[in-house]
Design goal:
This protein is an alpha/beta fold. The chain folds into two domains: about 80 residues, lambda repressor-like DNA-binding domains (434 Repressor (Amino-terminal Domain), Orthogonal Bundle); about 200 residues, Endonuclease, Chain A, CATH 3.30.870. Helix content is about 50%, strand content about 15%. The strands form two sheets. Strands 3-2-1-4-7-8 form a six-stranded mixed beta sheet, with helices on both faces. The protein has a two-stranded antiparallel sheet with strand order 5-6. Helix 2 packs across helix 3. The relative contact order is 0.12.
Length: about 300
């Protein structure tokens, strides 16, 4: 069944509650019985399907799972956001220590990214953050966040680098299928030396990261300009044989971030990705182009 983008906060809350329950070794039925709620009710809460969320249920579950007060407050805040169909403002993950620098809606994206099994992304003008070098990220941030202090800028780079652990983690690393426009290879961020290093990084990504370049000569596969987008796919729950969360499209533009998880929208972006991919270079030719471009920047 198709879902509205506003289900995302409920899904985030549900996933965190499910992880807390599993961490203490309780079955769905036992947890529901102990808080005097129906198994179906708790299952819908964990799957993000309850349009109305009771704070009393969150408090009871957190007490049952021995959740610290700080985490309880964060989950209650997330529940309040989900209940009024907004976006969550708090996530109890590593990035919370950078909360003054990270917009709440991007915290949502990072939580989705860390939980995803596969990322499909298209970038027309910059190298995506998941594969940026620290120097490349620093050069972009220095311009975009020009009013930041040196410490704040460095913290932003740390966030970018920490995100990349999703592709290097030992267990179930994130699979990335990246289409990047040739323009991103030619537009200088910082200096030629920085660009040369960045392009070599793209040419030497680990086996779970596939990079293909969309060359200038390919024209316009969609008949016009299309901005960057990400499609996130999630692992299957072995108990239900269904993805733990529905596939989600993330679209970012200057000053705005939009999420889609309806079947129609996800299919539309998959089709766009497939059409762009048909004119992209293969992996071998992409690596050759990246290394040649890197040498040009070294010259």
């Amino acid at each position: 069944m198709s879902k509205n983008p506003t289900t995302i906060p409920r899904r985030q809350l549900g996933r965190q509650l499910r992880e807390l329950r599993q961490a203490v070794g309780l079955s769905l039925a036992d947890a529901a019985r102990l808080i005097e709620r129906g198994t179906g009710t708790l299952q819908r809460l964990e799957k993000g399907e309850n349009p109305r969320i009771r704070q009393l249920d969150i408090e009871a579950l957190c007490k049952l799972y021995s959740v610290p007060d700080e985490r309880l407050h964060q989950l209650k805040a997330l529940a309040a956001q989900a209940d009024r169909r907004s976006r969550p403002v708090d996530e109890s993950h590593w990035w919370t220590r950078y909360e003054d620098l990270i917009p709440a809606e991007f915290e949502t994206y990072m939580s989705l990214e860390m939980a995803a099994e596969r990322m499909i992304t298209y970038q027309p003008d910059t190298v995506p953050g998941i594969v940026q070098t620290a120097d490349y990220a620093r050069a972009l941030n220095r311009v975009f966040f020009s009013s930041d202090t040196a410490m704040e800028l460095e913290q932003r780079v740390q966030v970018r680098m920490q995100r990349q652990t999703a592709i290097t983690r030992r267990l179930s690393p994130l699979e990335v299928d990246l289409l990047i426009d040739e323009a991103a290879l030619r537009r200088i961020a910082g200096s030629g030396k920085i660009m040369a290093s960045q392009l070599r990084r793209l040419a030497d990504t680990p086996s779970n990261v596939t990079v293909r370049v969309v060359p200038f000569g390919g024209g316009f596969p969609l008949g016009g300009h299309i901005g960057p987008f990400v499609i996130l796919d999630f692992p299957v729950d072995t108990a239900t044989d269904e993805p733990v969360e529905p596939s989600t499209v993330y679209v970012e533009s200057y000053g705005s971030r939009i999420y889609y998880d309806s079947d129609v929208d996800v299919a539309r972006y998959r089709d766009a990705y497939a059409r762009i991919g048909r004119i992209a270079l293969n992996e071998a030719d992409t690596k050759h182009l990246l290394r040649c471009a890197a040498k040009e920047f070294d010259a």
